[in-house]
């Protein structure tokens, strides 16, 4: 943003989080430039009418509205009441830490929105400028700061409407909005390309793993039918063994406890939400379990944990014996691997293969919540090379995937930097810290 100059003269806005604004700009509360919650569904709507519903979890800050769920009105939650039109801005007034703020595009203009959103509609302001003003990081932070409640922070729509925004003259609003439309579109295109690159890298990574753990590294080796449809052929000298026969004991469900605030002297309580997309434990939000309760669920080095239900079903984690004791939660299943039969790290690579995920998809119960039981996990067929070959495959996979993982991490970081640049540009432009008019 160094190529944008500041305005010539500034004055104090009187609002701490806005700071200085151009001297010719005004400062107005949202309620003076936009209406709030103009439209709701009529009470007379029939229960069998199909609606597209958007809730808080379907909206991401700077990601926009990600999806809408098609559902009969009779099956929709009671909070499915808000209506909007294209160009409106929706702002989450509940769980404000999620920063669920987005502009309504043509694609979602026919949707019904949760009453957890306030719907803002430009009245005395350029419609596009309103969008960018509300998406300012400073305003989103102000919404969080004015929220009440600890576990479920929320802000009243009336309080939201009183928050102030910097308002330039009408012609300037249009110019600022035009520049932000152009510049953010350019940044979004770069982000999309990098995101696609990551997807391709992940596909390549999985393909390399799948070939190694089901076919081996020697393309000239004699093959045989595994007898398992989703596995296909395997090297002739390999075995194909159910997971339960490769363990030191039965698969075990975790503790049905909520956990306590993290206490260093107590065992770490591992929940599936604690594991990131790279199979690593997150440090934030850690929980503990009292030693007396945790005892039957303590995990040892190289134990593997499986997610058994919900959106993360099939996800796995290998415990590498970190410098603390750990136990595991009820929505997870523990497998203690027999090291004389299979290397835990090698098995963990198999659990990242396409073949494994094909099995998981086919094994999920037809209940409302996706579920794979311990019995199903135990019946998972595992291609089993001799131990020495497992070691060679493991060396190859670690070396190959580490290069791909490093490239993915660098690309993810570059995406984060682009998002930070995007956010900073928006905030600087709509608060007058930079003058973008010449760029229009």
Automatic annotation (TrEMBL):
It comes from the Bacteria. GO terms for molecular function: DNA binding; endonuclease activity; hydrolase activity. InterPro entries: Restrct_endonuc_typeI_TRD, Restrct_endonuc_typeI_TRD_sf, Type-I_RS_S_subunit. Keywords: DNA-binding, Endonuclease, Hydrolase, Nuclease, Restriction system. Its EC number is 3.1.21.-. Transmembrane segments: none annotated. Pfam families: Methylase_S. GO terms for biological process: DNA restriction-modification system. The keyword Transcription does not apply. SUPFAM superfamilies: DNA methylase specificity domain. Residues 108-194, 295-416 form the Type I restriction modification DNA specificity domain. PANTHER family: TYPE I RESTRICTION ENZYME MJAVIII SPECIFICITY SUBUNIT, TYPE-1 RESTRICTION ENZYME ECOKI SPECIFICITY PROTEIN. Belongs to the type-I restriction system S methylase family. This is Restriction endonuclease subunit S. The lineage of its organism: Bacteria, Pseudomonadati, Pseudomonadota, Betaproteobacteria, Burkholderiales.
């Amino acid at each position: 943003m160094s190529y944008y100059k500041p305005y010539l003269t500034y004055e104090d806005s009187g609002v701490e989080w806005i700071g200085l604004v151009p001297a010719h700009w005004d400062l107005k509360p949202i309620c003076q430039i936009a209406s709030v919650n103009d439209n709701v569904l009529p009470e007379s709507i029939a229960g069998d009418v199909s609606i597209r519903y958007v809730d808080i979890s379907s909206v991401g800050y700077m990601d926009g509205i990600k999806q809408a769920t098609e559902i009969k009105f009779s099956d929709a939650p009671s909070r499915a009441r808000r209506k909007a039109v294209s160009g409106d801005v929706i702002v989450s007034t509940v769980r404000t830490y999620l920063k669920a703020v987005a502009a309504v595009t043509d694609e979602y203009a026919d949707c019904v929105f949760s009453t957890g959103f306030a719907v803002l509609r430009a009245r005395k302001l350029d419609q596009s400028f309103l969008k960018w003003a509300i998406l300012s990081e400073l305003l989103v932070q102000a919404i969080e700061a004015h929220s009440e409640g600890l576990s479920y922070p929320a802000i009243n729509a009336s309080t939201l409407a009183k928050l102030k925004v910097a308002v330039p003259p009408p012609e300037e609003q249009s110019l600022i909005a035009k520049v932000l439309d152009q510049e953010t579109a350019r940044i979004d295109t770069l982000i999309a390309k990098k995101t696609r690159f990551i997807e391709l890298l992940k596909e390549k990574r999985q393909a390399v793993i799948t070939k190694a753990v089901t076919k081996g590294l020697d393309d000239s080796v004699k093959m045989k039918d595994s007898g398992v449809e989703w596995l296909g052929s395997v090297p002739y000298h390999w075995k194909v063994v159910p997971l339960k026969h490769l363990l030191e004991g039965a698969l075990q469900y975790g503790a049905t406890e909520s956990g306590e605030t993290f206490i260093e002297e107590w065992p770490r309580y591992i929940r599936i939400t604690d594991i990131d997309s790279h199979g690593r434990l997150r440090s934030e939000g850690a929980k503990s379990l009292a030693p007396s309760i945790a005892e039957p669920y303590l995990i040892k080095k190289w134990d593997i944990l499986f997610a058994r239900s919900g959106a993360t079903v099939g996800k796995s984690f290998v415990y590498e014996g970190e410098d603390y004791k750990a136990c595991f939660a009820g929505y997870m299943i523990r497998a203690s691997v027999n090291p004389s039969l299979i290397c835990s790290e090698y098995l963990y690579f198999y659990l990242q293969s396409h073949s494994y995920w094909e099995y998981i998809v086919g094994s999920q119960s037809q209940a409302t919540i996706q579920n794979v039981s311990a019995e199903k996990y135990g019946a998972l067929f595992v291609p089993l090379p001799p131990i020495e070959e497992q070691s060679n495959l493991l060396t190859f996979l670690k070396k190959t995937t580490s290069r791909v993982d490093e490239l993915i991490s660098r690309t993810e970081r570059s995406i984060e930097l682009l998002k930070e640049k995007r956010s900073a540009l928006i905030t600087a432009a709509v608060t007058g810290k930079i003058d973008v008019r010449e760029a229009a």
